[in-house]
Structures
1.
Amino acid sequence: MTQANSAPAKRNTPQKAAVKHALGEATGFVSAQQLHQTLKKHGSTIGLATVYRTLADLAQAGEADSLQSKDAEVLYRACTTSHHHHLICRKCGLTLEIEAQNLEKWADQVATEHGFSQPSHNIDIFGVCAGCR
Amino acid sequence: MTQANSAPAKRNTPQKAAVKHALGEATGFVSAQQLHQTLKKHGSTIGLATVYRTLADLAQAGEADSLQSKDAEVLYRACTTSHHHHLICRKCGLTLEIEAQNLEKWADQVATEHGFSQPSHNIDIFGVCAGCR
DNA sequence: CTCTTATTGACAAAGATTCTCAATAAGACA
DNA sequence: TGTCTTATTGAGAATCTTTGTCAATAAGAG
């Protein structure tokens, strides 16, 4: 039997593994550019485009969270696959995962009340962590 | 008495008024590029840089909300100056303002509990509105 | 009306992200 | 294991958004 109709088969490559690993090592959110620099510093010859492609795949697969920074760049972070939100330090980027069952319900409810279907939401809390004061 | 020390005096110009007005006319979130197109279509000779500058000013003054789209561009929308959040249609961009006193408290509390000061947050709900189904 | 200087518009410049395409190598199968 | 198909890669070009530069303009004060 052939593939459904359009999605091509994925392949495992050392480059993907390297990006995944580097993302896991990072303490907070990092940009594709930063990740590329880090990888090259460690001797990798990976291409920038590959980093972008891999991060986009990871985000789509739910293995990474993405976030838009103030400078119009996208930041990524490895995460658990379960739904959660973030508490992020504005200075050092330290990130904590937050769970909020009530919020999920509230958000879906607000959407439904106003006739919106397929609800989703973005919730991020920012602040300055204890260590940065 | 002279101005405090650094902030220069603001001046009222037809260009700023035009951007403000165009932003008010828009139904949902729009990008600086879109707004510039719209203005030119209506005969204005306003420059793109001026649109960017004016929108940034409005956002800082709390007269407009900004939002990062998926395509790494910033979207703006005229809004009330009081704090609020948005319920946005993924298809047509229709936007409703949402108030949630409890949320504000919750967000600040979560930040404080984890030792974060100067809390702020981004909360947006997305969905598909009744008209788009 | 005059004078100071904030603002403007056209263009260049900076960044981030995506696209293109020939070369490479993962995975399937004999 | 060797061969074959084609997903993936890397380098650079191309695109797009946003910011900076700077001479010319015009808002607001006196």
2.
Amino acid sequence: MQPIEQPKSLMEVTTGKIRDAIVSGELSLGSKLSEQRLADMLGISRSPVRDALAALQIEGLVNVSPKRGSFVFTPDMRDVDELCEHRTILEIAAIRMGMDRNYDKLIKSLEESCDAMQRALDKPNPKNYSIADDQFHKFILDASGNRSIIKSYNHTISRAKALRTHLFTIFDENTDRSMGEHIQILEACRNKDSDLATTLIAKHIEHLATAFRIGHSNQPTDTST
Amino acid sequence: MQPIEQPKSLMEVTTGKIRDAIVSGELSLGSKLSEQRLADMLGISRSPVRDALAALQIEGLVNVSPKRGSFVFTPDMRDVDELCEHRTILEIAAIRMGMDRNYDKLIKSLEESCDAMQRALDKPNPKNYSIADDQFHKFILDASGNRSIIKSYNHTISRAKALRTHLFTIFDENTDRSMGEHIQILEACRNKDSDLATTLIAKHIEHLATAFRIGHSNQPTDTST
DNA sequence: ATCAACCATGTAACATGTTAGTTGGAATTG
DNA sequence: CAATTCCAACTAACATGTTACATGGTTGAT
């Protein structure tokens, strides 16, 4: 017998559902989210929906406008830059910590992610590539072992995921270059060259930021549905 | 005529009240928070209290245990270390950015905070010293200009404030040393020596972490009302 | 035709009712 | 007396009702 985990509350499930819908592009940026309508769609009452929207507002994925309604976030260029900068800081710090404290685990998990990315390129399967890409960076954070930083990163990263989905149509992003960069980062970690690893991560995210900027300028104010 | 700001919602006011009560030590670490009781105390219904507790849970100040009740957070040694580490990373990044992008504003605001700290030492007024201390670090973050990082920092820092209040009785912390460190940091900024500034910040927060560890070991499991 | 007052509708904020899980202690059993 | 069962009280989760505000279209006056 082992302790059973608390089954997820309705609110948590709802939060995940709405987050997924935003990140996956099912809900477009800026689209309206009525508590009542979401509750009807999900077949539950307004309470857990309201709680979920409040949580997502803190996460930055949703803006709640008093008495007017809730809306999926609409990032401007500055948001994108700030988000990437924040990400860079956290990932650089995390990879340094991970190399110091969890070298073996770090290498193992990054290898695993790189393999998954390579498989996704071979098929090719864009969705799986994105998942493995996310996993790669998540593993860097996990290796840091600092729960406060991991939590902060997770709160930050969902916006980046949503941006990628909304700004890139399937394979706009240069996945070959991306793949190579990930492998370089892994290699730098293997060699315990933390300075190189951090430089590579900074460049990698800067490339992403540039792609975001281009994508964002092509697709300005999108306020459908 | 200028646009009026939206008056704060009951939930926001409630969040602030509870947060202040925790940070100020009015509510001790680990103490129980019943939605009903808080609502009665504040003369409002359970809804805004519930929303506030949910927000504070995300902020890390409160743990909500399903069907059991809500409790003020009870950090262990590891939490303290992780929190300080996280803080260091954000402040170091922010001061680099601030020196690059908002040098004048940074210097001016740090000078202002140092003056306030010095005045608090002269009186002496511990509470004012803490406020000015917090302000000093907040200004470093503000100078970065990165809203994502600022928001993340603010979510992180309230736990640190609460720790200081709960672990230190009035002037346990070495405020003279603290004052000197702040001045050194300011001086390093004035000289645009960002490497020195970051080193000093790391040391400054490490001193705080050490003080927390000592305070924490002296005051283990405190689960009073 | 123009414009402003008005009203119907939609919204989240807030209040309150209901339900199911948790807990601590009293009653019961050995 | 000790251990267990059971029950009453408490709790947050969730449902639903009410209210105040926002909005967009209609109407009525000019």
